[in-house]
Amino acid sequence: MIVVGKADVGKTTFARRLYQELAADSGPVAFLDGDPGQSTLGPPCTMTVAVGGAKDGDFPPRSGTWSYFVGATSPRGHMLQILTGAARLVAVAREAGAGRIVYDTTGLIDRAQGGLTLKLAKIDLLRPDTVFALQEDGELEPLLSPLRRTKRVRVVDVSPSPARRPRDAEARRAHRARKFAQYFGGAHLHQVGWNDFPVLPQVSFQPGRLLSLEDIRGLVLGLAIVEEVDNRARKALLLTPLSSHDLAQVDALRLGEVRIDPQTFEDRALLPPWLDAGWQRGNPSRR
C-alpha cells in the first residue's frame, strides 16, 4: 500500500495509523519510511523499512529494521536511488515475512520537477494493491485520473486532517539536525583505508561528507561523517556509531551528496569543487 500526497497533508500520520490498524489485526506488517529528508524511522539521507510482529501494533515496528542509503535529503536529482531503495526494501520486508507493507512516500509531487513521474514509476515498479491519495485541490489528479480507469491498482481518496501542522524549511532543517545529532550521539572515530574497501560511486573524500558503510546486500550497516582525510596514505578518519567489530562486516563505502557540520549536525548539499574551499573555511570540521 502506497501513501501519496504533497508535503504537510498528513501522509505520515495517516500511514502510521494505517500500519497500526493492520498490524493489530494481522501480521507481520512492514512500514517503509521513504522520505530521506523528513525521516521517521532511520537517520536522514536514508530510506528505512521496519517489520512488526504478528498482531503487534506498536510503532515503530520492532521485529527488524533495514535501511538503504539515498545519500541526499531530497529525491530531486536522486530518483534512481529512491526507486532502487524502494525495490530493495520491499524485497527485504517480504523476505522477513511481511504480508502487508505500508509505504510512506516523499512529498515531491511537482510535475515540473518530476514528482508525479516518480510516483508513477514507483507504482509501475512495485505494483501495489492500493494507492491512498491525500490531496487538497486536485493536485494529484494528473497521476490519479488514469489510475482510476485501470485495473492495476485501487485508488482510495483520503481527506487531509484539519489538525495537520505545516512545517517551513527551517523546521525541516532543524528536524534533520536533531535526527543526525541523535544518531551520532554515541559515535567514535575510526581510521579507514580506502584501499581496503570498494568506494562507490568513486573516491572523493572531503571533511564533513556523509557516507554509508554497507553490507554485502547494499544495505546500511552504519553512517559516518568524514573528519579528516590523508590522501597520501589513502586513509580517512570517520565519525561513526559502528564498533570495530561492525567495521569488519563492511563490504563497501558509499559516498553521499551532503556535508554534515559535526558541531551543529546541520546538513548542506555537497558543493562543486570551486565552492568547496569556501564552505570548509566557514564550517571547519573539527571536534
Termini separation (Å)?
Answer: 44 Å
Report the helical percentage.
Answer: 25-40%
Radius of gyration: 20 Å
Question: How many structurally independent domains?
Answer: 2
Strand % is 25-35%
Which H/E pattern describes the elements? EHEEEHEHEHEHEEEEEHEEH
User: Uncertain spans, ≥5 residues at pLDDT below 50?
Assistant: none
Task: Map the helices and strands.
Elements: E1 2-5, H1 11-25, E2 29-33, E3 46-51, E4 64-69, H2 79-95, E5 100-104, H3 115-126, E6 130-134, H4 141-148, E7 154-158, H5 169-183, E8 188-193, E9 199-200, E10 209-214, E11 220-230, E12 235-240, H6 244-247, E13 252-260, E14 267-269, H7 273-282
Parallel strand pairs: 1-5, 1-6, 2-5, 6-7, 9-13
Antiparallel strand pairs: 2-3, 3-4, 8-12, 10-11, 10-13, 11-12, 13-14
Helix pairs in contact: 2-3
Describe this structure in words.
Helices cover 28% and strands 28% of the residues. It folds into two domains: 2-158, 3-Layer(aba) Sandwich (Rossmann fold); 177-282, Beta Barrel (Elongation Factor Tu (Ef-tu), domain 3), CATH 2.40.30.330. It contains seven helices and 14 strands. Strand 13 and strand 14 (267-269) form a beta hairpin. Strands 4-3-2-5-1-6-7 form a seven-stranded mixed beta sheet, with helices on both faces. The chain has 287 residues and is an alpha/beta fold. It has helices at 11-25, 79-95, 115-126, 141-148, 169-183, 244-247, 273-282; strands spanning 2-5, 29-33, 46-51, 64-69, 100-104, 130-134, 154-158, 188-193, 199-200, 209-214, 220-230, 235-240, 252-260, 267-269. The protein starts with a strand and ends in a 5-residue tail after the last helix. It is globular.
